[in-house]
Automatic annotation (TrEMBL):
The keyword Nucleotide-binding applies. It comes from the Bacteria. Belongs to the ABC transporter superfamily. Keywords: ATP-binding, Nucleotide-binding, Transport. GO terms for molecular function: ATP binding. This is ABC transporter ATP-binding protein. The chain holds residues 1 to 224 of 295 of the full protein. The keyword ATP-binding applies. It comes from Polaribacter ponticola. Residues 3-224 form the ABC transporter domain.
């Protein structure tokens, strides 16, 4: 699977050129998106996730023409925004089960198997009965990933997922993400250059809405 972004541009109503002719080829694996605040990272990710419109350009995920086939894309998308809503008084297990019902997984046995597999994969099985209120930042982010994985995504977008996490939690989170990256296009936006160097097979740096550098992280970061 490959995500191909071609000449994507977006100017907001206030005149800010958030994206200017962005072109990127993103294969299965972990892709690191680096750039300072205001560079256009969130705009790019929200556009790929079909949450906002571009002015021009195209995005393809395999056969899916993302900007035109929004429903098709949404069926294979996992998206973990920077801030996502949580239900503090409910448990991880209850919520995942609930979201699985909403996804239309009506068979109870099938649903239990799926929820258990996701809890194990994201290292939350032990705390599955706890209310999210008591979760640490890292646990919450891993819960977000479990939720995003419910749709068995081919494309997973995560926006600064480790902001505010301590190093142990960050490692735990990245272990989960790396495993997903073996079969999925994962776009990871972060400020932490070393994380991209360690985790990602490809990267791009954007600034002022433009791609300034793209390629192999080890090579790019060592040359920096
Ligand atoms: P980030 O942490 O990604 O830099 P921002 O603080 O830029 O996030 O944006 C947070 C939210 O505010 C986003 O939903 C974004 O669309 C919106 N936003 C950012 N800048 C503006 C702006 N100049 N005018 C209106 N909305 C904005
Ligand atoms: P990043 O995620 O890299 O911080 P954003 O995509 O949030 O960057 O923002 C890129 C630029 O677009 C910034 O100058 C921001 O203020 C502006 N911007 C973001 N969202 C909006 C919006 N809804 N309306 C107007 N300007 C926005």
């Amino acid at each position: 699977m490959e995500l191909i972004i071609d000449n994507l541009s977006k100017t907001y109503a206030n005149g800010v050129q958030a994206l200017q002719n962005i072109s990127l080829e993103i294969p299965t694996g972990m892709f690191g998106l680096l750039g300072p605040n205001g560079a256009g990272k969130s705009t790019l990710m929200r556009t790929i996730a079909t949450l906002q419109e571009a002015d021009k350009g195209s995005i393809k995920l395999g056969e899916i023409d993302v900007l035109k086939q929004k429903n098709e894309l949404r069926q294979v998308l996992g998206y973990l925004p920077q801030q996502f809503g949580l239900y503090p008084k409910l448990s991880a297990e209850f919520l995942l089960n609930h979201f699985a019902i909403l996804k239309g997984i009506n068979n109870k046995g099938e649903r239990n198997d799926l929820v258990n597999a996701l809890l194990i994969k994201t290292n939350l099985y032990e705390v599955r009965k706890q209310n999210l209120k008591g979760f640490s930042g890292g646990m919450k982010q891993r819960f977000g990933i479990a939720q995003a994985l419910l749709s068995n995504p081919k494309l997973l977008i995560v926006d600064e997922p480790t902001a505010g996490l301590d190093p142990v939690e960050r490692n735990r989170f990245y272990n989960v993400l790396s495993e997903i990256g073996e079969k999925t296009v994962v776009i990871l936006s972060t400020h932490i250059v070393d994380d991209v160097k360690e985790l990602c097979t490809n990267m791009a740096i954007i600034n002022k809405g433009q791609v300034c550098l793209k390629g192999n992280p080890k090579k790019i970061i060592e040359d920096m």
